[in-house]
Amino acid sequence: MKVLFTFITLLFLNSCIPIGQETERYELGNEERQTIPYMAGETVTFSHSNGFEFDLKVSSKGTKFQKSEIQHAGDDYITYESQTTILESNVPELSIYLTVFPLAYNPFMSVEINRYFFKIDLSVSPALETLTIGEKEYHNVYQAVSMESDSEVIRPEKVFFSKELGLIQIIMSNDEKFTIKGEN
Amino acid sequence: MKNSQLRVRINFCAILLFFAGCVEEACLDIPELELRLTNIKEWVAKDNIGNQTIMDSNGIQQTLIMSGNDSFNYDNIVEDDCGNTFGSYYFSVQYNTSFSPLHLMVDIQGSGISDDGYEVKLTVTKTNSVSVKSSTYDFVTENARDTNAVITEVEGFQSAGQVYSNVLKFTFKDSMVPNEIKTVYYAKGFGIVKFTEQNGNEFVLINE
Lengths: 184, 208
What we know:
Chain A is mainly β and 184 residues long.
């Protein structure tokens, strides 16, 4: 009898928890889905500024829906879609997460390189019409600078990205560079 | 079992326990313990060592970030029947690589309590996975206290143009994961000076 009473009480209390409503829903458009030009399973060769070459493999690419954060139970929420592409290499041990959101919801593309974060504003024109690396020219290049302030450690400091080629170059704080192959 | 038999056995056990309690423990060998404590303190990384630059086999550099470098002394941890007391010493240091997902922790301990003894414990964590492994070197037996790694003391170890008088080389068991840490070199007074991955990639200090 006691068990039944406890069960009914819990059921009653549970029914008192308010449930929020979805107020807006943002989905990725076709153009937004093509922001990151990699295909799952593809490999992209990069070279380090001292000549060492290595492959970055696109280990996954997928979309998911998430709910916006709420402060209290029962608050209304927004649902948005995001697309994440993961590139990985063994030597050096790199894990790169590129995530895009619907522009109307969040115009900033997220670039995470081994726990260092960058933001690229896709709602504005690329920072560089032309980027020249060696003898090669790249067009419509976005640039992101690290949000980290610790100048004492060697870390990724700047990233160049284009919708045509994806990651073009990562510049480290000691001026070492990882550049898409053949472009050093 | 009969009641009388049970009583005899209980009495026998009680007598054994009584005599066992009368066995005199050896006195602490204070000079020997002091010598071991002095020796183990020489393994502690010097205070002036901080963040250092490491370079892998492919010439890629990153920072070996040192943190939590601290030591503690405890008095009178153990006391014998001869009126002697002895304390214990504990040192800990942690390392993170600024780019690779790696965390290393070294704990050095010296104690008059025989179970604790004089040891160096290395713990290696790959921060992008759940991989954690550790091994402990016993300075008294000069061997690993476990089977996780083979630990040897190397004299006159050379790395990146620097010679280290004494180095503990931890060689962990083979792993199927290419980026797992295979060997770690800990130099007396300097701390970690080199480590290698299962895939052969080596990381050495370049700014001694």
